[in-house]
What does this fold into?
Amino acid sequence: MTERVLIIGGSANDFGRETEGDVATFQVVDVIKKYGHEVVIVDDNPYAFTTSRHDIQVIEKALTIDNLMAVIAKEHITAMVTSVGGSTATRLGADILKLMGNGAPKVLGLSLPVMQATQNTKYLHERLQQLNIPTVQSRLASNVSEAFDAVRDFELPVVIRPIAPMGQTLRLQVTDIDDLEEAVETGLNRSITHQVNIDKSIRGHQEISMLVIRDKRDTTVLIGGVEDMDPVGIHSADSIAITPIQTLPDPVYQKLRSAAFKVIRGFDVIGLLEVRFAVDPKVDDYVITRVTPYFDRTAALLVAATGYPLIPVVTRLILGETLEAVQTPVIGANHTALLEPTMDHIVIRFPIFSFGDFESNGVKTEHRLNTVQKSVGTTIGVGRSVEEALEKAIRAAHFNNRNFSPTVMNALTDNGIIEQLIHPRDNRIFVLLEALRRGYTVDELAEMTKINAFYFYKLRQINKLEETVKNKPWQMDVVKLAKYYGLSDGLIARLWHAKYEEVRRYRWDNGILPTYKAFEPSAGEFEEAANQYYSTFESENESIRLGKYTALVIGAGGFRLGDGAAASYVMAMVAAELQAQGIQTVLMNNSPTDLMFMPQLGNKKYYEPLEISDVMNVIEIEQPMQVFVPGNRIKLINSLRQNGIDVKVIAKEKYLPSSIVDDTSRTVVNYFYDGQTIYLIGMGSQSNDGIILDQSVMTEALWDKIPRPQMSSETPGLYQMLIKHQPSHNDEPLMVVRPMPFTMVAFLDKVTGIDWMRLVIRYMLNRQTHVEQQFLAQLKSLQWRIPKAQLTYWHADFEEHMEIDQMLDNGRYAIGATYHLI
Amino acid sequence: MAKEIVDAMAMQRALTRITYEIIEKNKGITNLAIVGIKTRGVFIAQRIAERLQQLEGATIPVIPLDITHCRDDDNQSTGEKISFEENIDNKRIILVDDVLFTGRTIRAALDAIMDNGRPAAVNLAVLVDRGHRELPIRADFVGKNIPTATSESIRVKMKEFDGMDGIEIQ
Amino acid sequence: MTTRYLILQDGTVYAGEAFGAPATTFGELVFNTAMTGYQEIITNPIYYNQIIMFTTPTIGAAGINHYADESIVPSVKGVVVREIAEISTNRLRTLSLNDYLKRHNVPGISQIDTRALTRHLRETGIQKASIVDQPDDHAFDQLRAMVLTNQQVAQLSTPKAYANPGRGANVVVVDFGLKSGILRMLSDFDANVTVLPYLATIDEVANLDPDGIVISSGPGDPNQVPETALEIIREFEQRIPLFGIGLGHELFAIANGAKVAELASAHHGMNHPIREQITSDIIFATQGQAYYVDHTSIKDTPLFVTHIDITDNQIQGLRHRDYPAFSVQFFPDAAPGPLEETQAFAEFMEMVMARRGGGGI
It folds into this structure.
């Protein structure tokens, strides 16, 4: 039977919602269509890549229950997918099931209980107890004596929370029995119902995630596990995370694996489920703290790390295939999707914080990490040792953050160190390194931070290594060792007070060259059709030049405030167009959630930091004809050009330049430039609330009146001009033209129905034909797909996440945006 | 309150073991037919037949048998004869039920089988033997022996009928 | 920091960093893809004679723990890995993996491109290898001249019978290089276990009046194991439930007329899907095998196949048609490894209890 499948989108990007949902959605669409079903997507994210597809029905409406119910009725929806739209889609899916009851379209792979358990911790705990799976111990008490009963059973520490609190929510951690009575009384007094909840505290326990999949025959496979370096108490997204799991002994690892299987069975989930554990390292006991039945950053990380084709496999499962029947080209052994991924490398995920961006503009934030997510994005470092992966992850994450500079560390007092060890901040990895440098022992630090001693041994190694490099300049063995453990040419240069280029040459002259290894899920046991690589410095190189005529595309890097998603969108468009032009494409990036690494794009991929040394290493292997770089990477562009590389710049302002904090609105004129002639596309207006694009404001007369500025460069691209108000005869036209911000590029694509960046690439490659020329000549008569639409900056809860309470420049700091038709 | 005493996995294993024992005892599966007593006995019979098929590649006939109104302690007993579609003469019959208790159901089932022909042999397979027999009947293949009080009841849950596998005591 | 070398019989040389004991060692080089359980693996007696290479990049992070010993001393001849972590988990912080190997005179070598070496071994199959101070002609001469014993079982099996008491069913384990996991599992069922040497006679077994018998795992070629073992299998499979594991599985096959041959490339890991034929269920288990039961040789035996590895279609489990006797190629004791196939022990003990009288549990 042909299904009409509704994919519920994830709406705006936000804290904890990068582009991973879009990456998954794109792949889900491909599989569903292959099975002959019809796809309808509801989403209002202007930066979504999937909804720019022309082969599916896209409904651009706000993700509200009313809108979805209307779509379900009007479009005769028979099935829904909620697992690629994050928590929003899961919540909406659950609401639809509750409201429509038996009349609701089925949610592929998921049942109501698991969707509810995702949102409601209490419900999760109840269900887990029914399944006989350990969960956080919790009890209600209405007087001190009942509270003591609970604590006698749980043992300290516990957390006291008043039920229905008057005023702000309150959590009182009790570690000393003498404090219990007072805490309980405080809690009781704050509770309207005069009750407190007593939870056994899991603060300081180790956080582990396991991702499992299951088919309708009840076959289960563990895709992988992720270990957070930081203990419970710091939001998992803000923690440095490592896969495969390093510090769990096998019996504990297997216990968690079996428990994850039990949970996915217990909730009868078909497809994927991420199960989060808190493990008490002292007794190797665990509780389950969370289940996630959708594709999120952990799943994205594991897809990147294992090379396992998770989304295509899982989509087949939710459409009713069995795991045994699913064949995958990536996996050599009998092509079976059942081979449990095994890794022979280490992947470290490093959070990206935006404190630095805020601070450089005088915006005050709270740096301390806690249970509320503060990071906005992620990067990964891949290596064959923890040291190497960590070095590469830091390198990938930290550009533009002055908190990471060594001078800041040197200035820390001893008290400051202790304070920051106990109350970690965004730069804690450097605090840990500094603490080791100042002589704290591993055991002391492990006790103070609840971070496994293993990581301190590894950090100590890094310190030793940097010390060696510093003390022994220009020694081949030292460089060899430094590269083996992931230090960049740039860092070595800094330690030697030399230039990056000198170090690279020295390394080159001494034959210390990177070797690239494939990501594949069998750890080398089977021949695999892999096309993703990472670098290390070992004996065997597996990456050979893709071809004689290739293009290299440098990605936007980790997700950041502002245009993170839009940048990902634009660079994905670049890659897609190169491919459409029949050019073999090599992609390089370091964000596991980025669109560029979806399997549909590119012929070959490198998961690498994007510093000059890393990019040059790839260029030396691939020798591409051109390198496409986002325009904000000015240093990289200059360095590449100095090395004689043909760099194609995807023009970009550093951030949305037209955003305005005040109340005014400005007119924006958008242009396409083919390298010689500049063409008018249309007009819009912009304010701190958003962007409006309206085709009707462009009258015949206006069309001719609007200036066509003279361009100084010959780089084709999208440009715009800002005007205080609509141009009139007397206006002094503002002739300064700047590159169109990526946010605008994405929105303009959606509104006009044209993939403008693809056009830019065609001109950049000089591959335009009369079709393009004709199209540009007739832009005036182009009928926009949406005559009038508004992009609204997403009001991400900065107050909750960053403790900022002041007016922000939305264009610059918005994490995401939504749009709607007017 | 109902308490699960055998989980889905252990129940699966018991069915698997019974299947192996059937092969062992019958020296193969030629000439075998399985009679399942409605309702859950039929599902168990089908699962055993599926397992035999997986292992030996041969299809074993499964004959459903509804003896609701044939038991000697049932006063609505119609006394009507039940007729099978399969010929069971000289077949080796495995009679299957979920729970073996007093033995009266089995006796009724044996009567129904004998009414339909002359099998070479009849063996009894049950998932649970809970004791308290009132007739001289013994199972040849037992999944689980579960000692029970007469006041307790045993409930076998099967995915096909109850949505999940497991054995509960109440 | 001391540089040492891993040399292979085909002339391959890898330079690396020495850890563990500074001794020279010889063995067959095999790779293991397990990501956890390094201590269980290096103490598994099946690796007697072997230098084990871990494909997982770092081992040692969980320290050394008494519960993870599969035999009292490590069985491997050497350890090869990319990185070793110096972690001690004991109270005195004195026993890291490095210390442990030193103490037991097992050399190791780290900073090896294990991925390259794995890909190499994938092509060449098992090779003789040596960890040496200098990769010179002398070292290669010695390596090529080295003959590894085929008497591993004789060297590892207990010389004397011993008891592992319990209050439940009476189980005999015939020791061909037993790993502790098997005894641990039987203890979980409170079995009263007697472990017998591999040369035990039918009379010796019979005199213990066992309710069930386990033919243990162990190292080496099953075709080298003396006939007495096969006689025990043939005798007792008819009388009491019999459970063969690993080498015991291979012996069970041979005893019943099947053929066992050496694999072109050994398989050690825990990520292969194994299908239980009767239910089509997929399970994962730790595997460590260099030999396999030949599929075509099963036809004329009273055995049928119960488990198959679906990545390479190798037999992973067998059962006797007429008797309550079965065997698995993989390690159902889950030490290390996935827990799902520990149910093979539950199955065995259920059979034992059923035949002992009473039936069922």
Observations:
- Residues 402-471 of chain A form one domain.
- The mean pLDDT of chain A is 90.
- The radius of gyration of chain A is 27 Å.
- Chain A has six domains: 4-108, 121-132+203-343, 138-200, 402-471, 516-650, 666-821.
